[in-house]
Write a structure and sequence with these properties.
Number of strands: 32
Distance between the termini: 40 Å
Strand content: 25-35%
Number of helices: 9
Mean pLDDT: 75
Largest sheet: 6 strands, mixed, barrel
Length: 491
């Protein structure tokens, strides 16, 4: 399928930049909870090899659709040998119907397969019952016409040839060649609203999303099919941005992924505990770009040329929890690997699905150094051996860092930091102030989120929803996504 026209891409970028300049939304008062699990099943041994192969493909796909994120409880364990993509259950329409959508911090719009789609997958290899959205079957649903404000705001003005009652169409081409096209509709999104410490009640909000009429590439395959994608990007088309524009949420969210015990937290709202140090987001970028200053291994700073950290188009450093692994420019990758294995010259590497793997009988945390990434404003990211290695069978470990030059020509000069190195840390994205920060944290514990409207502070717990699902997921990681929503605006 042909990519969207250059004008469309430019207009979508313009919409993103305009939204970033729009300022903060009113304070929030409660939250919403979505239950999420991982897309790839768990496994060890031969099965694990198949999973990590698929993981590399998934990361390659992600590099073409990076963007933002938002509030949901996620399931799965953040390790390449366990699972790869997060997905959640949402409910749309009146009466509400259930849809399973991939949680994507790298794209903007929410879309689900439409009843009019002829070649959309009817079955999923994940064992999920797929549902097709029918605008006419929902009493609260309506089609967005091209002359409505949402369409004009999305495309920077009225579209040529637009007449009354002509649907507002969308087209998204992802980096892996997959695509979705269709038209926008507006309907009710239902969620669990947080009303107190560990307490929720049903809530809903009106959102505009895509009704997918045609899917291309992998999105048209039934192997790992879902009902759609839930993007949490910064553009005005994202669900997060729509809720913020309506004054229902603050544009602040956080995630905490626990790869040790499973479980975790994903929340929208003003996190007041634990406190985190922050670093500025690079201005006028569509992704979560930050300024990386230096890297040290075991306390020794690597001697790297300054230009490898420069920000710019197809350069710089991106934080993306939707990517599992971490990708480094070739020069950086080689220097980091040389320093990591400096005291282990006798280790013999073998290739497992293009991963560097080796046998090691002891504790990797005892035998290998900590890697520290230093960012602008003196923010450090400590990555411990169990976070840059992952187990793949009996005493076999594989390296979770990848040479970006071998993965993507467009991304060969980019430092892309995925959820393997972001795990066991509370990561806060404060879009109100255009900063991002983190701190080492026990993701099986709790965080506190403040309702800026009333001053009330709520405790948000970690969750593990695996036992509540039809299919059991090994060490299921569940991330609680809490949207801090003004209760008087919930209908």
């Amino acid at each position: 399928m042909a990519p969207p026209p250059p004008r469309l891409a430019a207009l979508l970028l313009l919409a993103t930049l305009l939204l970033l300049a729009a300022g903060s939304a009113p304070g929030a008062a409660a939250g919403s909870v979505f239950q999420v699990r991982r897309k790839f099943p768990s496994g060890v041994g031969a099965d694990a090899g198949a999973n990590i192969s698929a993981l590399r493909v998934h990361d390659g796909h992600r590099h073409g659709r990076l963007l933002a994120a938002a509030d949901l409880p996620l399931g799965g364990l953040g390790l390449p040998t366990d699972t790869g993509l997060y997905f959640t259950e949402i409910k749309l329409g009146t009466p509400p119907k259930r849809y399973y959508v991939q949680v994507d911090t790298g794209s903007d719009i929410l879309w689900v397969n439409c009843i009019s789609c002829e070649k959309c997958p009817r079955k999923s290899g994940l064992g999920l019952d797929l549902t097709f959205y029918d605008p006419k079957a929902s009493s609260s649903g309506s089609t967005v016409s091209c002359d409505q404000g949402f369409c004009a705001a999305t495309y920077g003005g009225k579209l040529p040839g637009c007449t009354a009652n002509v649907p507002c169409e969308y087209s998204v081409m992802y980096g892996d060649g997959s695509s979705t096209t269709g038209f926008f509709v507006t309907d009710a999104l239902q969620f669990d609203q947080v009303t107190g410490d560990g307490q929720t009640q049903p809530g809903n909000a009106s959102v505009t999303f895509g009704c997918g009429a045609q899917q291309g590439g992998d999105l048209g395959s039934s192997n790992q099919a879902l009902d759609g994608i839930l993007g949490f990007g910064q553009a005005n088309t994202s669900m997060l941005s729509q809720l913020a524009a309506a004054g229902k949420v603050k544009k602040i969210f956080a995630h905490c992924l626990d790869t040790i015990k499973g479980g975790g937290i994903f929340a929208i709202g003003n996190v007041v505990q634990p406190k985190v140090k922050t670093t500025p987001l690079v201005a006028d970028m569509p992704h979560y770009n930050v300024n990386l200053k230096s890297i040290d291994v075991g306390g020794t700073t690597l001697q790297l040329p300054a230009h490898v950290f420069e920000a710019g188009e197809k350069k710089g450093t991106i934080i993306d929890s939707g990517t599992t692994l971490t990708y480094l420019p070739e020069l950086v990758f080689k220097e980091v690997m040389a320093a990591v294995f400096n005291k282990h010259q006798d280790i013999v590497f073998h290739n497992v699905q293009d991963f560097m793997c080796f046998q090691y009988p002891g504790s990797v945390d005892d035998g290998f150094p900590t890697i520290t990434f230093h960012f602008e404003d003196d923010l450090a990211l400590h990555v411990y051996p169990h976070e840059y290695f992952f187990p793949n069978g009996n005493d076999i470990y594989c390296v979770g860092f990848q040479d970006g030059a071998l993965q993507s020509k467009d991304g060969k000069d980019i430092v892309l930091m995925g959820d393997l190195v972001l795990s066991n840390k509370l990561v806060v994205y404060d879009l109100e102030n255009q900063v991002i920060g983190w701190t080492d944290y026990n993701c099986s514990s709790t965080i506190k989120i403040k309702d800026d409207k009333t001053g009330t502070t709520y405790t948000v717990n970690s969750h593990d929803i695996s036992s509540g699902w039809k299919f059991h997921w090994h060490k299921s990681l569940v991330l609680l996504l809490v949207t801090m929503v003004c209760s008087n605006l919930i209908r």
